[in-house]
Amino acid sequence: MPVDSPILEARGISKSFGGLQALRDVSFSVCKGRVHAIIGPNGAGKSTLISIVSGFLKPDKGQIYLRDDCIDRISAQGRVKKGLVRTFQDVRGFSRLSVFENILLGSHVHGPRGLSDFVVRSGSIRRFRNSQRDMVFSILDSVGLADDGEVALSVLPFGKQRLVGLARAMASRPEVILLDEPGAGLSKEEMDVMVKAIRVLVEQGVSLLLVEHHMSMIEQLSDEVTVLDFGQVICHGRWNEIRTDVRVREAYLGGALTSHARS
Ligand SMILES: Nc1ncnc2c1ncn2[C@@H]1O[C@H](COP(=O)(O)OP(=O)(O)OP(=O)(O)O)[C@@H](O)[C@H]1O
Ligand SMILES: [Mg+2]
After folding, report:
1. Quick one: 9 and 72 in the same domain?
2. How far is CA 104 from CA 29, 117, 119, 196, in A?
3. Are residues 169 and 67 in the same domain?
4. What is the pLDDT of residue 260?
5. Ligand 1 touching residue 23 (CB < 6 A)
6. Is residue 40 in contact with ligand 1, taking CB distance under 6 Å?
7. Are residues 242 and 226 in the same domain?
8. pTM for this model (two decimals)
9. Residue that finishes a domain, picked among 116, 149, 173
10. 43 CB less than 6 Å from ligand 1?
11. Per-residue pLDDT of the chain (263 residues; tens, 9 = 90+)
12. Any domain includes 89
């Protein structure tokens, strides 16, 4: 597939919650191996869009295409099997399981049985676990968690817990990752580590939809940017083009976009 062909496409997505129109006719595409950022003020509809693309929510209208196949009828787990995985805006995971086990859970769609078996640790799961060991350690290494595999998730500092979320998504062997605010709550130093980890993914050829409030991350990572406001696309282009766009400035309370726009 040529680099510029879309691997993921959303066409005319609309979604209402009761009387609130969270998304209205939103379309975008992510090209293979590229980072497409979605920005917009709080409540603009970014997480709703990620939930719809990943299959956690059904749209009222519109279609999602992965590699030219319409995936509207495929469940969230089915989409992960097809190579489309999301991360969450908040830290999620199993606090008492080790970092290794949390990341291993990301690969369970390719394993022998369901999620609960991971906790029971049946024989087949033990064999699967052993077969995935090298893969998990290589992911740990690539996100800078090589020394933390045996530690319980809850013991890790917040920034590292966020990296585990990214690592868990990587363990499903995705082609496309939808990242919902990977920089939320991170210190400057932690954010630098996150940017590095995301760059590793891009170098591996993974395509990314990146929702983020920290404009420094958008500047460093994005190839193109779509701006949402009140559920509608108001602007699309490269970061250098959209950062000065008057519609975008107005959406962000009329102020200039800074590296720490509203969070
Ligand atoms: N499950 C839901 N039920 C009702 N309203 C919802 C639901 N999920 C989201 N909304 C509303 O839809 C709108 C868009 O929310 P969404 O979480 O997608 O915004 P966002 O752009 O991700 O915001 P933020 O930057 O704060 O994370 C908001 O007004 C929100 O309150
Ligand atoms: Mg959100």
Report:
1. yes
2. 30, 12, 11, 22
3. no
4. 46
5. no
6. yes
7. yes
8. 0.90
9. 173
10. yes
11. 455 779 999 999 999 999 999 999 999 999 999 999 999 999 999 999 999 999 999 999 999 999 999 999 999 999 999 999 999 988 788 888 899 999 988 887 766 655 555 555 666 667 777 777 888 999 999 899 999 999 999 999 999 999 999 999 999 999 999 999 999 989 999 999 999 999 999 999 999 999 999 999 999 999 999 999 999 999 999 999 998 888 888 888 655 455 444 43
12. no
Nearest CA to ligand 1 atom 17: 47
Last-in-domain residue among 151, 173, 195: 173
Does residue 111 share a domain with residue 36? no
Q: Are 164 and 133 found together in one domain? A: yes
- Domain range holding 104? 95-173
- Interatomic CA distance for residues 88 and 258, integer angstroms: 24
50 and 60 both lie in a single domain: yes
Pocket perturbation via mutation, ligand 1, pick of 16, 23, 24, 47 by most ligand atoms within 8 A of CB: 47
CA of 248: how far to CAs of 13, 222, 256, 258, in Å? 21, 16, 9, 12
Q: How far lies 196's CA from each of 93, 239, 243, in Å?
A: 22, 19, 23
Any domain includes 90: no
Task: Please work out whether the CB of residue 42 comes within 6 Å of at least one atom of ligand 1.
Answer: yes
Closest listed ligand to the CA of 180: 2
Question: Rounded to an integer, what distance in angstroms lies between the CA atom of residue 112 and that of residue 125?
Answer: 7
Q: How many distinct structural domains can be found in the chain? A: 2
Q: Which residue's C-alpha comes closest to atom 1 of ligand 1?
A: 17
Nearest ligand to the CA atom of 228: 1
Residues 199 and 159 in one domain: no
Cβ of residue 46 lying under 6 Å from some atom of ligand 1 = yes
